[in-house]
């Protein structure tokens, strides 16, 4: 996967692993989970059967990375899922093919199972079907008699038939958007998780090993019948899928976003709460209400791009999610390239602070690559003059000095 630092439409993702590793990436808004997974396998040498998990469930390869909360995706290698299978009894996904007798007995089995953050599940992509042939099969039991039979007692032909049947028939019903709605229902919304916890998109010191937000165990959430009260917020928190007309607008209005607005001309940072259907004009009005000194010609700059001040320009359509950082261009800072340079300087400062604590080799490599992407972004700032041109040159020198301090071997990386 090529570097995306020079493109304006980006989203920042933090990928964690069960071994305590943290990888920070700048990705395009249209990046799919499958593309990110292929990049991690190719770039960092993970096993080809490695999967990305969200709240213990395999993330759909066809879903967008930006639809998942920041830092919620986790890398799971076959070794991780194998240890989970050995400690957990086999579990059947909730599908229409399960006999009523088994549905009645399933809650009793669930009460005796130990909960785990990573539960084995079946991938839905065609690529995963091909790769799962080399992995350990996940047995699916369709009767009480079959449930008592261990995998060692089953004939090889029968086990092979069960494996193919499991992959083709029993596909998880929960899409990436439905998984996100489960997280919102359990925790009270993403805004509550983000408030007061994230000052920057980069890990610092001991934050690399922080655990994911606590939610109900995936096995319990899948087996318990949903109540009418729990279905309403899930639908409200779903990410709009482009179907349903006014229903999508209603869903967006129920999603609350907290946008961090930086005003360089006034040297202020103002957090603004808006709903998911708000436009760029709504954001400007909210900032003006919080900061009366703001000039009427203020504009919004996000990821080096000047957003149109229009009621039709929705924040969600421009890649702005909760805890996003935007800059307000006005006064002496009314130039998009000046604002982009300020964004670059803040990103450099965040990495520099993180380098003050001990780093693993993987973290050094990740920061080195991120600095390279930031360096590419400075190539688009060619029209700056005077003091700003000099500040751009100083930023380039600062980036190269930090890369040298990381001590990453370019040939190996």
TrEMBL record:
Q: Where is the BAG domain?
A: 357-406
Q: Which InterPro entries match?
A: BAG_dom_sf, BAG_domain
Composition-biased stretches (Polar residues)? 108-126, 175-208
Q: Where is the composition biased (Low complexity)?
A: 93-107, 209-222
Annotated region Disordered: where? 81-250
SUPFAM superfamilies linked = BAG domain (SSF63491)
Q: Name one GO molecular function term.
A: protein-folding chaperone binding
From the record, give the transmembrane residue ranges.
Answer: none
Q: Name one Pfam family in it.
A: BAG
Q: What is this protein called?
A: BAG domain-containing protein
Source organism (scientific name) = Leishmania donovani
